[in-house]
Amino acid sequence: MDYSTTWHELDADVAAGTSRAGADGMVRRLVGQTSLTEAHLGVLVKSGLRCLLVRIPGDHQGGIPTLPSWSGLRSGVVQGEEKPVARRFLLLQQEAASPTDIFESVVADVASSVLVESNTHPLLVVRERLERWKAFFSEVGVQGLGKDAQQGLFGELWILRDHVLPGLGPVDAVNSWVGPTHANHDAQHRSRGLEVKTSTAKQHHRVHIANERQLDEHGLESLNLVASSFTSLEDGGLTLPQLVEDVRHRLSSDGGALRLFNDRLMLAGYLDAQSVLYRTGYVLREIRTYRVAEGFPRLVERDLSEGVGDLSYSVVLSACEAFRMEPNVVWESFKGKPQGGDSS
Predict the structure, then answer these.
(1) % of the chain residues with pLDDT over 70
(2) pLDDT digits (tens, 9 = 90+) for 257-288
(3) What digits encode the pLDDT tens for the residues 72-114?
(4) Which residues face 75 on adjacent strands?
(5) How far apart are CA 14 and CA 190, in angstroms?
(6) How is residue 256 annotated by DSSP?
(7) How far apart, in whole angstroms, are the C-alpha atoms of residue 290 and residue 331?
(8) In angstroms, rounded to a whole number, what is the distance separating the alpha carbons of residues 297 and 295?
(9) C-beta atoms surrounding 224 within 10 Å
(10) Are residue 197 and residue 327 in the same domain, yes or no?
(11) Which of 13, 210, 260, 307 could be stapled to 19 by a disulfide with Cβ–Cβ 3.0 to 4.6 Å?
(12) What predicted TM-score, i.e. pTM, was given to this entire model?
């Protein structure tokens, strides 16, 4: 949910002095409520720092659970000003010198999750969302995705948008995108998997395999390698943020699928507040698809000597021609249709 308008209005109120600050020195605004809780955005008058307040249910017994924390955010409990019985609020406050746009992204996610998951105790929702954000900052940080990670995410979303979503529909398509969850493969629907590799090299000769499980079809009915080749442009083409917004638009009719997609984006290291960092555009050159089966050039766990693991390697695509398949056959197979062994 986008609260940018609310933040602008609060900043304007603080600057003009038109709203009375509470005893805590904060101007606040209610942005949503459920039978269990309320969510308020707030701005501290003296510092301009942002806050989120989540009302603690009146029947809550016990203390406040320990919440994940990181540099830029602090939490606490504040009392309302109601009489004779004041309500209690969980406070998430931006720390001085921390990026405002990042904090606003955290607040938007936490507040919308509390309001959407209206049957779950709000403190549990807040803790779960903050745990995800802490994992995000541990892996990505405020500097955003590196070039290779941007490129890889773009390739996965391209396949999701153009070939998985049309065949499976919003819910199944987003559920099948499991790469951000650290699954063995980038996409899996029922017993069929896709491993997506993306390159912007002038000659797409080889693909990098990160570990011994990426090309292991054990437990699957079928596994396909998708090798996508793009041209990267500094002025032109489709950027990663544009592709993200396009997928969101196509999911907009299904709120559950859209929320899951946004969760997976965060797990993949993508944050809207950092979208200005991703200016490179991409133009598709070619997509090659291969069936991964016995005889395919690869290293898998069952073939390794005892004590060997955590390896990465490259596969030369010219050595895979005997396993090449028509892309349309692969997309149809991923939907659940039988996949023959004929190559293109």
Answers:
(1) 97
(2) 999 999 999 999 999 989 999 999 999 999 99
(3) 999 999 887 766 667 899 999 999 999 999 999 999 999 999 9
(4) 92
(5) 53
(6) H
(7) 12
(8) 6
(9) 27
(10) yes
(11) 13
(12) 0.82
Are 59 and 179 part of one and the same domain? no
145-153 CB contacts, 8 Å cutoff, 24+ apart:
145/269, 145/270, 145/274, 145/277, 145/278, 147/280, 149/269, 150/240, 150/278, 150/280, 151/198, 151/199, 151/200, 151/230, 151/232, 151/282, 152/196, 152/198, 153/240, 153/268, 153/269, 153/270
342 in a structural domain: no
In this model, does residue 328 exceed pLDDT 80? yes
Helical pair 100-116 and 122-139, crossing angle rounded to 10 deg: 140
100 in a structural domain:
yes
DSSP H/E element including 22: none
For residue 47, give its domain range.
4-139
Residue 29 near residue 20, CB atoms below 8 Å? no
Residue in the block written with tokens 């540099």: 71
- For 102, the enclosing helix (H) or strand (E) is helix 100-116
Residue 29 has what pLDDT? 95
